Amino acid sequence: MGPLKGIRVVEIAGIGPGPFAAMMLADLGADVVRVDRADRVRDEVPATPHPDLLNRGRRSLGIDLKNPDGAEAVLKLVEGADGLIEGFRPGVAERLGIGPDACLARNPKLVYGRMTGWGQDGPYASMAGHDINYIALSGVLGAIGREGEAPVPPVNLAGDFGGGGMLLALGMLAGMLEARTSGQGQVVDASMVEGSALLITMIYGMQAMGAWGPRGTNLLDTGAWFYDVYECADGEYISLGSLEPQFFAEMVDKVGIDRDGIDQNDRSTWPEMRTRLTAAIKAKTRDEWCEILDGSDACFAPVLSLAEAPKHPHNIARGTFVEVGGAVQPGPAPRFSRTPAQIARPAPNPGQHTAEVLGDWGFAPAEVAALRESGAVR
Known about the structure:
Blueprint: E1 8-12, H1 17-27, E2 31-37, E3 59-63, H2 68-79, E4 83-86, H3 92-96, H4 100-106, E5 111-116, H5 131-138, H6 157-182, E6 186-191, H7 192-199, H8 201-208, E7 227-231, E8 237-241, H9 245-255, H10 270-282, H11 286-293, E9 300-302, H12 313-318, E10 321-324, E11 327-330, H13 354-360, H14 365-374
Helix pairs in contact: 1-6, 5-6, 5-7, 6-7
């Protein structure tokens, strides 16, 4: 199942964007094996799946990368892989003996994916950091927030996942596709600074055209009263995004506010119209607004919590969320008509499939036994 059936990827365990990229590839059918640290493997495999949903769809083996035999085991896995993903700071993989040169020497067709915040070089390359820092440097964080207020971090979506893991997955796919024709692998250097900058390309374009001003004063950043979230009578919120004139007219009509003589694009009227719309929305509950606006072209949706979203009728109809291993979670995306993606298995516990994976990837029983005896695998 899945369009990537037959693709094999080795994932060196990390956190955040690397696992997300590996999850996407596994959802799409790739056989992704996760190399977890040997010291995280328990003597007995827990009866329940691991709770980290980002690790779903893979099998896990425990390897001590500081053990020379463990590093050698990774290199042997690489011999049968199409790609490898690692998220160490620059230079760490090389010191462990599993850097690009060592891996490509074993498999010249390998696509070696590297996930970092700052990139493999540059003045910040060796510094620690997190999503908030990377999107600060790319200009993304500075663009998000209300006028006169501090920037608002959009949790860790723009750096870790949109600009990081998703861009790495795209890079891996492009590299593996090219390797099929050239017979040569390469290194994919995925940086969250550069990835998040890429996500905000349209806004840089609007700025170049003179159509983007300070934070919180623009069409898409809560500057416009007809593109914002509003509180309802019950303390819940709805979202409105009626940018186009026909959608704007329908929103105003459905909400029932008076805009006689008011031009949608006349910024001098925006404060007054925001006051009117705020009062109108506050007069009804979120459910009442759903009854009024559902099915319309007002560009509306209720603002749902993480607990509510899986229960919404549209998400149920589309199968947006699925339950695997007892955990409700977002399902694979996008959709494929002939080779549907699926979650092959719940998140593994570290080392749960060590012997199974080694056997499937060409290790003889005696080799597995020797690796166990040396402490290289667990």
